[in-house]
Amino acid sequence: MAVTQALLPQLWLTQGWIVLISSLVGKVTFLLIGAYCASKFPLEAMGDVLSIELKRWNGAVALIEPGATDTEMYWNGHDMFGWHGLSRRRAIGFFDG
Questions:
Q1: Contact between residue 33 and residue 77 where contact means Cβ atoms under 8 Å apart
Q2: What are phi and psi of 65, to 5 degrees?
Q3: Mind listing the pLDDT tens digit for each residue in 7-34?
Q4: pLDDT in tens, 49-92
Q5: Where would you find the membrane-spanning parts of this chain (predicted)?
Q6: What are the structural domains, with CATH classification, of the chain?
Q7: How many C-beta atoms surround the C-beta of residue 49 within 10 A?
Q8: Rounded distance, CA 24 to CA 37, Å?
Q9: Euclidean distance between CA atoms 64 and 61, whole angstroms
């Protein structure tokens, strides 16, 4: 946010763009990656409000939401609790209490 605030005067002069890299999980959450999802919701909100605020100076915001990528976090997060063999019904029951 501090970088964005520092660059806003230049953005107003040039009618430029702010490009934010977010994730689909900033709009929809998934089981077992709650912390990651929670980190993306504020970025989505910032992009939304900046696009509204910058319209008066002809600035724009691009919010890019790439799909899943083949990273260690992606593969490790899916079975961080060793639940690959766990049935969906049993997993949901675990979280429902």
A1: yes
A2: -125, 80
A3: 888 877 888 888 999 888 888 887 777 8
A4: 999 988 888 888 999 888 777 667 666 655 555 555 555 555 45
A5: 17-38
A6: 7-96 (3.40.50.720)
A7: 11
A8: 9
A9: 10
